[in-house]
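Two proteins follow. First one:
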Amino acid sequence: MKIGLIGYGKGGRFFHAPLLASLRGASFAGVVTRSPERRQDLQKDYPKVPAFDSLAYMVAAGVDAVVISTPLASRRALILEAIELGVPVVSDKPFAPDAQDAQELVDAAERRGVLLGVYQNRRWDSDFLTVRKLIDQGVLGQITRFESRVERYSPSSVGKESGGGILRDLGSHLVDQALLLFGPVKRVYAELEFATSEKVDHGFFVSLIHASGVTSHLWGSCLQNAQGPRFRVNGSQGCYTVDGLDGQEAAALAGLSPKSEGERWGVEEHRRWGWFEQGEHRERVPSERGCWTEFYRQLQEAVMNQGRNPVDAREAVASAKVLDAARTSALQGRVVVL
């Protein structure tokens, strides 16, 4: 299977290319970028991977699927072009600036019968896989409150429009995870932080009341000096907490890959494991192995009609509706009922 990549900025270079180049039964077929600087990066990183001037040229050369990792503003046109060319397509997140645009892309793909997926790689983070396992096994009992954070101190990220703001960018991961665990949302309350205008936020708090009865509290920031726990999950039988981010991001940014690391990829050392606590009882919980490559393995099966789409774009529409409601809530100072 030949998989091509559109865009070779930070996302394409570090969060997609290393996985595509490590994928068994597939080849990293090419990159669409006109930037001389990024073509030099590509030549240095993957000397045998060709660069193309356009999506159409790459498709004509022969690919079985394409991955779009460009700034949000350019993503819609490229997704539609791939759909019209009849090529299975994966969009980086955020999938669309709002739910209406997201639904229009889904409708276009369904009309053409083209597979359309969204790259929600953090479904395969070590910490999230551990949370899912604890919940599925009933270790925590009945879940009452789910807290999830991705907080950083990165002043250079303030005001960046490429991802549509921190709520759209990081928030798309956190909302996706909450919906995956606890199902549809009934009510949304949110607060946003802005530097200069109400266009691009750099921090958020979102409270979700799920139809299942669980309350999710989600935080994201690029100006947080003292980060809170990545997850804190409260249940009737105990609480699970874990600090820090899954290590796959840092590994990828350091130039490592599943291919170079082998069985070490995605493994968290014991000092980074989380804790189970109930009253005075406290014990370490071994972290599951993170596996971002699982997204692409499942994509391979879906393209060959041997499995389901790992993240169907219709799931991204559901997340976009929650994100739309969160922005409305923050700007209007009210709870939004879905």
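Second one, unrelated to the first:
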Amino acid sequence: MFRILAERLRQGHRTPAYPDGPPPPLPDRFRGRPVLDAGRCPSGCTKCAEACPTGAILGPPDRPRVDLGRCLFCADCVEACPEGAIRHEQDHRLAVRGRDDLIVDGGARTLALAAALEGRMLGLFGRSLRLRQVSAGGCNACESDSAVLQTVGWDMARFGIQFVASPRHADALLVTGAVSLAMRGPLRAAYDAMPGPKLVVAVGACAISGGPYAGGPEQCDGASGTVPIDVFIPGCPPHPLTILDGLLRLLGRLGPDDGDRGAPEP
């Protein structure tokens, strides 16, 4: 016991100060928000769209757009572009409230970060949010990056956010996976079992659009055809910091310009 206490004292405080301080450092290989420079696109070039495995690059060629709901953040488009017109920043902030808000370009259509809940909903959930996680056909990547938020490294319970074992005790579903046909019924049953009012958080490309499985006959191209979604958190998988940022924005803990300490300017 004394050895455990001594080691704990040696390690010190392990939970980052975010959002009251800078976000924890992200690895150099981290791929955050994609940025397009349409002015550098060669006339008629479609190499980035051809390289994208999920059709996340939308046309026309002279005005490309990126659907972050489909994007796997694989960087195949970055490698395929001969002019370097697309790149990934290290900006972790990706969560939005509307599906259409995930479609961005290199011009006026920028990412509209998630706004807080309104009125009574914010009063109910702003200080206490209980999540029931439903893996509806996921590969366990988004599930793992969601679960790690319960550890001392992130400690999302300090914000009043916790996972619970039953949808009857939950305020919101946190959905991961492309929603297989076998999981469509259980997902809807979990939603129906929650007391109202209730929320749904879609985490990862699979839950938003089907991800790499989109169009497959045994899945539903994401959760939106089964349950209504209140916040979309893209990625494959989204970083724990991205997930936490989205939840805090939903609860009004972050404003439009908060959470960007240390993030590069676009």
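SUMMARY FIELD: Strands lie at 34-36, 57-58, 65-67, 86-88, 103-105, 129-135, 161-163, 172-176, 199-203, 231-233. Residues 261-266 have pLDDT under 50 and may be disordered.
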